[in-house]
Specification:
With 114 residues, the chain is mainly beta. It has a single domain (4-110), classed as Transthyretin/hydroxyisourate hydrolase domain (Immunoglobulin-like, Sandwich), CATH 2.60.40.180. 6% of the residues lie in helices and 40% in strands. It has 1 helix and 10 strands. A 4-stranded mixed sheet has the order 3-2-9-10, with no helix packed on it. The radius of gyration is 14 Å and the shape is globular. The N and C termini lie close together (12 Å). The mean pLDDT is 96.
Length: 114
Amino acid sequence: MPGKLSTHVLDLTTGRPAAGMKVELWSHDAAARLVRAVTTNSDGRTDAPLLDAAAMAAGRYELVFFVRDYFSARQVDCPFLDRVPVAFVITDASAGYHVPLLVTPWAYQTYRGS
């Protein structure tokens, strides 16, 4: 399987995908550099991988999820979380990396999925 980076977001307050959440991918190797900014689709995913096989490279990355903006757009008070950063390392550019976010206005969880 060719390497790729993907994500999806689940809104645990509704038990549904978090459609319409802004997500930024940053590279943190030499200096911080915005790689991509996307918005999740109706399935809480991006329409294409954040990094496809051609763009995959080993290094330090960060996904930034705009949680407060997402909940505010749905008239849900989000008094605690603002942006959720998830910093991670890609060590094998030929592997698949999936970084999901499970989120409420008060807490979040992430893991390396498949």
